[in-house]
Specification:
This protein has about 750 residues and is α/β, with parallel strands linked by helices. It folds into 5 domains: about 5-105 and about 200-285, P-loop containing nucleotide triphosphate hydrolases (Rossmann fold); about 120-190, Arc Repressor Mutant, subunit A (Orthogonal Bundle); about 325-385 and about 555-655, P-loop containing nucleotide triphosphate hydrolases (Rossmann fold, 3-Layer(aba) Sandwich), CATH 3.40.50.300; about 390-520, PCRA, domain 4 (Orthogonal Bundle), CATH 1.10.486.10; about 670-740, Beta Barrel (Thrombin, subunit H), CATH 2.40.10. It is about 45% helix and about 15% strand. It has 27 helices and 24 strands. The strands form 6 sheets. It has a 7-stranded parallel sheet. A 6-stranded parallel sheet has the order 3-2-6-7-1-8, sandwiched between helices. A hairpin with a 6-residue loop joins strand 21 (about 700-710) and strand 22 (about 715-720). Helix 2 (about 20-25) packs across helix 3, helix 3 crosses helix 4 and helix 7 packs parallel to helix 9. The protein is flat. The protein starts with 5 loop residues before the first helix and ends with a strand. It catalyses: ATP + H2O = ADP + phosphate + H(+); Couples ATP hydrolysis with the unwinding of duplex DNA by translocating in the 3'-5' direction. This is DNA 3'-5' helicase.
């Protein structure tokens, strides 16, 4: 560095704070940069690479930078080229998988691969597993294809080949290992490489070829890794092997933002880096450039409840900012209305809708929020996911329900004829399709005809008969049931619930929760919370209008890509993003932290880290909301505020109370707070004013007594206790209540 003038390096250090400068200009050895949320870590990484090239005189080809997403890799390369003013096409910047792929393409013979090997994605991998099970006559109910797929991928992420997996005499595990072995042989024969294989094969390539390993160790003088807290066992081993004893390694990450343990990430990797990489220099980036100090103080207090942290305190030179607003809705509908009404106020204050995000722990929570946004004409987009009624499991459940009403619904029949898998292959479906076309009949009729005349016989014929019997049975079993009971029965007896419950991990759990939320949607529908319910009856009579409502909600309500719209997303999807205004909905025990976190060691701390990530997405204003009564798993349950709320300092919080003419009803959970109860309610437009304790009559539910009331005007609601029907919340504008 002695031969470099101050003018050469000053642009690399200009506008950096002291900690950032320390990280950028550190000597070439090993360095751990603990980068807090909003502390400018990408900038530090880019400037660090530029420093190594300009000051330490490393060739661009001697640097390897690893990211977790292609988007992050592109951003790093673009910013680096802009900073240095030159093209860096051949610099090794990419994801773990893309760099592994580059190694395997270059050294395909040493890797024992065909020259033109093919990469298969997750869907291709699942299809291959399904074919293996079928070809070897293995019961796909006892060994669900997705579970086999997760097992294989999980083994590879741990760096394990089939012969290295310990079964300890367990027959089930032994069968899984055998399937893994057969899967691997099939891939070898076909020249197929899945994502897990890319990294494992490249690790083996370097490990088993000392000459090659020596070449790359000599070539890469410095390795840099972004989001290091998200590395899994295999990625960590790959990095250690490639770095050896000589290369300098810079890793950037935040143990407080490690939220992907459920997909293999090991927070221990960042915690043991200092012990396993010699003479590590640690730098903490704690100055935050995103959020107000009120938000940061809350985040620091929250995360301090986790044990074993590496330790850092976020701070800002900016303003204190507004306190965090906490709203307790009496149920999830009230919570959603509060959020959307507040968003409207924020827009009136001058915020763009795209500057506002609603975050939630469970995908299923989006349904109530989406419907409220749609009713109020508020444009929105689901970031990193699908709208509720477009999700695969919901579309499958609705297809079964449509078949109950209309067996000749070809699209619905074709969608679920083999979901869950029941041995009806694409060739069998094609036979039905050809017969239906040639004879001008529905697929349902073609199915019966093909089984009847023996066109489809043997295993295929039996499977078709079983499917037809299932639909008839569902129809018969649900006669006389209420709408939500019909949907519960169909979800269970069709096998959809068990099918997704057998998927390991968050995705399967999310699908089950979405199916349960569909039951909640049916309850809400029959309680008069939608105009289409005005003319509907109960039970099967309500199914057709409910399906119409679902179709309307699945229509083109989502905003165009470039339209100014509210952003909805899960907390996991929000990582790396920031918004001036953030709502975190459903901050309740059992929902957030999720009930599953209570069952596995370490999961509760990961849930707290997830909450920390959510809080630190907010730049200016943060709202935390929860419902005292929520429909969960098909029934209404009283909820307790999350422990995460209780872990926030009271002086940073303000409780929001409803404004104007609206007052909250007293519930069992609230009566001790001394809040006033609303005595009467009117919807206007000539409709009668109703009072608490008044007897009323409903055309469907019969006679009942008003227990609670909320609001005034067309959206006013009352809770009525009906004889034989229980308590229901009804919207006065179209509930057709008659005072007695």
């Amino acid at each position: 560095m002695d031969d470099v003038s101050p003018g050469d390096v000053s642009p690399l250090l200009d506008d950096l704070n002291p900690a950032q400068r320390e990280a950028v200009s550190a000597p070439q050895g090993n360095m751990l940069v603990l980068a807090g949320a909003g502390s400018g870590k990408t900038r530090v990484l880019v400037h660090r690479i530029a420093w190594l090239m300009q000051v330490e005189r490393l060739s661009p080809y001697a640097i390897l930078a690893v990211t977790f997403t292609n988007k992050a890799a592109r951003e790093m390369r673009t910013r680096l080229e802009a900073l240095l003013g030159l093209s860096l096409r051949n610099i090794w910047v990419g994801t773990f998988h893309s760099i592994a792929h580059r190694l395997l393409r270059t050294h395909w013979q040493d890797a024992r691969l065909p020259q033109h090997f093919q990469i298969i994605d997750s869907d291709d991998q699942l299809r291959l597993v399904k074919r293996l099970l079928k070809d070897h006559g293995i019961d796909d109910e006892r060994y669900p294809p997705r579970q086999v797929q997760y097992f294989i991928s999980g083994c590879k992420e741990e760096g394990l080949r089939p012969h290295q997996v310990q079964t300890h005499g367990d027959a089930y595990l032994g069968q899984m290992v055998e399937l893994y072995e057969r899967y691997q042989l099939t891939c070898e024969r076909g020249g197929l490489v899945d994502f897990g294989e890319l990294l494992l094969r490249s690790l083996e390539l370097l490990r088993d070829n000392p000459r090659l390993l020596a070449h790359y160790r000599e070539r890469f003088a410095h390795l840099l890794v972004d989001e290091f807290q998200d590395t899994n066992t295999l990625q960590y081993a790959w990095l250690k092997l490639l770095a050896g004893e000589q290369a300098g390694v810079t890793v950037v990450g935040d143990d407080d933002q490690s939220i992907y343990g459920w997909r293999g990430a090991r927070v221990e990797n960042i915690r043991r880096f200092e012990q396993e990489f010699k003479n590590t220099h640690t730098v903490r980036l704690e100055q935050n450039y995103r959020s107000t100090s009120a938000i940061l103080d809350a985040a620091n207090a929250l995360i301090s409840h986790n044990a074993g942290r590496m330790g850092k305190e976020l701070w800002t030179a900016g303003v204190k900012g507004e306190p965090i607003s906490v709203y307790a809705g009496f149920n999830d509908l009230d919570e959603a209305r509060f959020i959307v009404d507040t968003i409207r106020e924020k827009v009136d204050e001058g915020f763009h809708r795209r500057e506002i995000a609603i975050l939630y722990r469970s995908n299923a929570q989006s349904r109530v929020l989406e419907e409220t946004l749609i009713r109020q004409g508020m444009p929105y987009r689901i970031y990193g996911g699908q709208r509720f009624y477009e999700r695969l499991e919901i579309k499958n459940a609705l297809a079964y329900l449509r078949l109950l009403l209309n067996r000749d619904d070809d699209a619905s029949l074709e969608r679920v004829i083999n979901v869950p898998a029941r041995g009806i292959g694409t060739r069998t479906v094609e036979i039905l399709r050809e017969r239906a076309r040639s004879q001008g009949v529905s697929l349902w009729q073609a199915l019966h005809d093909s089984v009847g005349d023996g066109t489809c016989k043997g295993r295929a014929g039996n499977a078709l008969s079983a499917f037809a019997n299932l639909i008839e049975r569902l129809d018969n079993d649900t006669a006389g049931l209420r709408l939500h009971e019909i949907i519960t029965h169909v979800n269970e007896i069709s096998g959809l619930i068990d099918h997704h419950r057998n998927e390991k991990g968050e995705k399967g759990q999310a699908r089950v929760e979405n199916l349960e939320e569909l039951v909640n949607a049916a309850r809400a529908f029959t309680q008069g919370e939608t105009p289409l319910m005005q003319e509907a009856g109960e039970g099967a009579a309500a199914l057709e209008p409910f399906l119409a409502e679902a179709a309307l909600n699945a229509g083109d309500h989502e905003a165009d890509e470039f339209e100014d719209c509210v952003q909805l997303m899960t907390l996991h999807s929000a990582k790396g993003l920031e918004f001036p205004v953030v709502f975190i909905a459903g901050v309740e025990e059992g929902l957030f932290p999720h009930k599953m976190s209570m069952e596995e060691p370490g999961r509760l701390e990961e849930e707290r880290r997830l909450c920390y990530v959510g809080v630190t997405r907010a730049m200016h204003k943060l709202y935390l909301t929860y419902a005292e009564l929520r429909r969960l798993h098909g029934k209404e349950t009283f909820q307790r505020a999350s422990r995460f709320l209780r872990e926030l300092p009271e002086e940073l919080l303000e409780e929001v109370r409803l404004r104007g003419q609206i007052s909250r009803p007293v519930t069992a959970a609230r009566s001790s707070r001394g809040l006033a109860q609303q005595e009467s309610v009117t919807a206007g437009d000539g409709l009668p004013t109703l009072s608490l304790g008044q007897r009323v009559s409903h055309p469907l539910f019969g006679e009942g007594v008003i227990l609670n009331a909320e609001g005034q005007g067309e959206r006013a609601r009352v809770q009525v206790s009906f004889e034989g029907e229980g308590d229901k919340w009804l919207v006065l504008g179209f509930a057709k209540l008659t005072p007695l």
